[in-house]
């Protein structure tokens, strides 16, 4: 009887995520902009050979700075072109405005705090900055798909209540964007705080998700957005990636040189097959 009851117990509160209205294809150009959580997720796409650009001008924590990156990228990045998929990861609604010019800065660059005014963006302001970023992308690529998510990383410097208020503002802004249409919301924040509600899924600072947690969220992201082709491409890449990353006992041995040459040849074949 005990075992039957135990088997029926729910040991995790699962986040119900519906399948996206679009799919990420193997050759899609991708842009990740936002908090360091965007770095973590974006790096996994880069490691798996997707055509991803991740925070090209550094980490951008707030919606205004995300807009700055998109605006600058469109002007400067003629080589990569406009992305097919853009992922915006919102970290905070706090911004720093330089008193001298009145502009919102993306990085204080360790300048004295008294040179800046700290402000909190409203839901409407967050939504407006994000909408402008989306519109800039769509002016260049009408078919661009945009994913918005809220970083699960808490900000201790605001106090935990203040951090929750900041996240609440971002969540409401993201929800507003999703309801108005044209963007998809991915619940990274909810996955971390519900499915992974345990400190073993955090780094030692108890604020940042562990590598295991980020891997879990990445797998959830794949289930929601990946096409079958994208899943197959990633699957084919894994043994090649492992072979290229192998650390030999003797790098000068003929056996390892042959092993490495095969791995490099496999990589070229893979890149050609998937047109990367």
Provide an overview of this structure.
It is a single chain. This protein has 276 residues and is α/β, with parallel strands linked by helices. It has helices at 2-8, 36-47, 63-76, 123-140, 160-180, 188-195, 211-225, 228-244, 254-273, and strands spanning 29-34, 51-54, 85-90, 94-98, 104-105, 116-120, 145-150, 183-185. Strand 4 and strand 5 (104-105) form a beta hairpin. Helix 4 (123-140) crosses helix 5 (160-180). The longest helix has 21 residues, at 160-180. It is globular and about 65 Å long.
Could you write a compact summary of the structure shown?
It is built from nine helices and eight strands. By secondary structure, the chain is α/β, with parallel strands linked by helices.
What's the arrangement of secondary structure elements?
Elements: H1 2-8, E1 29-34, H2 36-47, E2 51-54, H3 63-76, E3 85-90, E4 94-98, E5 104-105, E6 116-120, H4 123-140, E7 145-150, H5 160-180, E8 183-185, H6 188-195, H7 211-225, H8 228-244, H9 254-273
Parallel strand pairs: 1-2, 1-3, 3-7, 7-8
Antiparallel strand pairs: 4-5, 4-6
Helix pairs in contact: 2-7, 3-4, 4-5, 8-9
């Amino acid at each position: 009887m005990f075992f039957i009851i135990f088997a029926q117990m729910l040991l995790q509160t699962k986040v119900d995520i519906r399948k996206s209205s679009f799919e990420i294809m193997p050759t899609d150009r991708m842009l990740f902009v936002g908090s360091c959580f965007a770095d973590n997720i974006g790096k996994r796409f880069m490691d798996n050979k997707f055509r991803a650009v991740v925070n090209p001008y550094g980490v951008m924590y707030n919606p205004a700075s995300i807009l700055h990156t998109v605006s600058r990228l469109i002007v400067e990045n003629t080589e990569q072109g406009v992305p097919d998929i853009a992922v915006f990861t919102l970290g905070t609604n706090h911004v720093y405005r330089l008193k001298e010019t009145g502009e919102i800065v993306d990085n204080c660059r360790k300048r004295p705090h008294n040179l800046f005014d700290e402000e909190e963006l409203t839901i409407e302001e967050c939504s407006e900055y994000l909408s402008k970023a989306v519109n800039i992308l769509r002016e260049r690529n009408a078919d661009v798909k945009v994913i918005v998510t809220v970083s699960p990383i808490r900000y201790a410097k605001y106090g935990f209540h203040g951090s929750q208020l900041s996240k609440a503002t971002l969540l409401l802004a993201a929800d507003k964007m999703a309801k108005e249409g044209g963007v998809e919301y991915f619940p990274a924040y909810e996955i971390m705080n519900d499915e992974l509600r345990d400190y073993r899924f955090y780094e030692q600072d108890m604020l940042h998700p562990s590598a295991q947690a980020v891997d879990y969220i990445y797998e959830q992201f794949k289930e929601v957005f990946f096409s079958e082709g994208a899943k197959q491409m990633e699957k084919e890449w894994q043994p090649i990636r492992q072979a290229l990353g192998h650390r030999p006992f003797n790098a000068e041995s003929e056996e390892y040189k042959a092993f490495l040459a095969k791995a490099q040849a496999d990589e070229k074949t893979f890149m050609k097959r998937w047109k990367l």
